[in-house]
Task: structure prediction
Amino acid sequence: MSDPYHLLSVSTDADDSSVRAAYIAAIRACPPERDSHRFEQIRAAFEAIATERDRASHALFDTGVTTAGEVAEHLCAGWRPGRPGLQALRKALEIE
Amino acid sequence: MQAKADEALREARYKDAIDHYKFLLKQEPNPDWLSRLAQAYAGRARQLAAKGMLKEALAVWRMRAEVCALPLELGSCLSWLIRLGEWEQVFGILHGADPLPDDQREEAQTQLARAALTAPADVLLKFPSDSPLLLHRSAALAALAACAEGDAGAMNEHLSHIPFRSPYRDLRAVLKALTLFPVDVGQAGEVIGRVPAGGVFEPLAAALRICVLPGDTWLASLSKLDKHTRGLVFDIKGCPPEQRAAVTELSLLEEDPAALYGLVARHRQAFPPGLAARLCLRLLVHVPGRIKTYGTNFAPLPATEQARILALGAELKGRPDEAEAHWRRMIDTMTAGQNARVALILNRMADGHHHGGQPGELCEHGIELLERSLDIDAADRGTHLRLIRALKIAGTEPGALRKRLDGAVDQFPRDLEILLQAMEAALESGAFEQTQDLAKRALQLDPINPKVRSALGQAHLSQARLQIAAGDLDSARRKLEQAGSLLRGEGLGGGAARGAHEILLGLAAQSPDDTAALLRAAVAKLGAGLAGIFHLLLEAAHTKRNPLELLGLAGAGLEATPSIGEMVGFAHALDAARESDPFLRGVLAPLEKMILRAAILPFEESDYALVCGALERRGARSLAGRYAEAALKRWPGRPVFVYLRAAALYAGTTTRIPDKEYTALEKAFDAAESQGDKRTASRLDALLEEGTSDFAMPARPTGMPGLHDLAPPDMVAEMEEMIALGGGSAFLDAVRKQIGKRAFEQMRREIGGSKKEFARHVVQMFTEAQDFLGAGDTPYRDEARADISVPPTPSGTLVPRIPARASSPHNPKGPPSPGIPTGAPTPSTQRPAPPGQKDLFDE
Result:
């Protein structure tokens, strides 16, 4: 995930304190001992947009490569988990 | 044949293996071969079943029993029979005259569980009335319906009627995980993790296993699923129908920004409002050619944004000149109130002027861009530090550096790093009071910082020197006392400072006897020989004392030949001495004979390198050259000494390196590279690069027409004649000799193609160079400056104008020639343009 705003779940017009609060919440939810890779991503995201100058710099010079997974994650953010209907479940049980 | 058969069996080529073993068995009824034939039949049957060819698989299985005289063992292919709907045979296996062992029977019932849930009524009638498949079936179906309804309570109630050993036990876990997923993905993952892979309810379990994968890893797994299981994943994750095609395509996509851009743009209608545009905008820097289609798909981009994307695109392609042009265009289109962004862009433009070398090193133009950036946004601490570092590396005069640092200190009065930088610069430039002031401020922030303490100690030493020179010995002793308490640790030049302190204590002593005693003790402490004498002479110069008189007082002389140990100590002392010390070179002159006398001693190779290096770094090039010569006599061709000899002899005049020396340097470079001596290889590389970086090539070999002696039109004609007479190879050999092996090989790599094509390319390059130089030998302008306007500052004044890019990696003072590859010799030396002359590269 190369989009720091998405990773920290803050809007693009967030200020310093909002970014910091989101960062602290994110590292509480994912401490380094649980998932060090994810923690590093969160830390890098915070450093990329921590201050107003950082955010301006990110807006100007970000060349992070958006991946298919990242696009899917953006889409996923708007989904509400559900369950297959009975028909789909029965279909899954059918033997071809 | 047996080997062939075994190999086919091993490689899962079962069809071949069956043929080979059957052939072998016709020759001889070998029981081992028969057993392997049975293995081959079984393998082939499974292969066919995996392809969905169940009938064929069963036929092969039956053939296995017949040919190999084995029992049919249909229990092994029960799942095929179920899938084929061969219920008679299935029930025959389960309840026939020859019942299965208990464990196999239980396994067979588990395999039937999924089929039992969807089997037609007539098939269900064939189940024994006490079969768990029938007994727990209604509870399983009711749980399934409750799960689909989202009624977790009812589902759990129905599941409670399914015992742990029931054939439907996996369904219990799957349905529980399904219900947990929307509320607790982690717990759902734990539950589904307990269901063995490949079980009878695998389609549902597989979908759930993918849904609980962390981050975006589920997407890659999606591509491996069949359509129906993929649909289950979408249902569970809640993917709306209109987005399913896009996500399916995403799962199949290679990591390719262009393809991803196309996909997002194509499915933009299915994306939430604004998301597709935002994602495509982010992807545009990797596919800047899509700027126009972006305008069609979403909305036309403003000129500023277009310039930004093109600049970043050029950067990513490694085209700094092009990037800078776009950045400048972007600044042109920016409005007032965006000056902070202009400052950031100027800072970014400076990145294009780092041409290797040390980290943070910038050419003059890069430094100027940083200065402009700070003029606009003085509160950018990072740019202050970056500029200071670049100025230091560039060897900026201490006064100018201090001026810049004063500005930084004003802006960040409580920033330790900036205070330290300012303090070091003040010390270097001899501003001792300012050093003390800055050091005190830094110590308030970090009371035990060794760098600060050492710098403060050195400032005290410097003041003591002035006081000794002025005859104020009482004040000098007080200063030396203060210095002594600060210089105990190894800090900034700690060793050299402590040596100076010892000697200065002697010079500030109250009586001549005390002076003599302290000096003798100091010289003895500093290594008794050359290192002590060196310190003594240096302090004599600092305090304006007679060096011979001090040598006499210290009982030291210049007649002895230093030992190897003394020379090593001296090399360390030399390295520790302040580089900017104006007396350093002068002090080395009286020591020259002593140093030379020691050159023939049987040094270790590493000691020779140490002494040579220290002498070279302190500008004693002829001495360094003599030591390198002496070392080369013992270790001929050793890369480090070849470098040091050449660096000593030809520093600043590398274009005069004779062919023989040049060849030796090239060999030394190859040797250093093959020995893994990266440092020496890099230094040799820089020297060779310097020697070939302009058109003043090494002296031509005897009898060879010299390209560098020819006027441009003659030069190209000469090349064509050489190709006509001697062919491409002879011409290329001549070019190789002229420009050096390294530059030649680099060109060869970059241009590629056959020899003929390469030769044509080289001539083309020189033709372009001729076009360049033809019009009155138009030189590159040294300091090209093309002003561009920037928005006015809030106060209404215009921010300083930005210089045009005027450097390139291999020609820091001038732009590269178009058509000439990176690293190839550029067809002009760096000469300033006559006043008013237009730069050919100005945009």
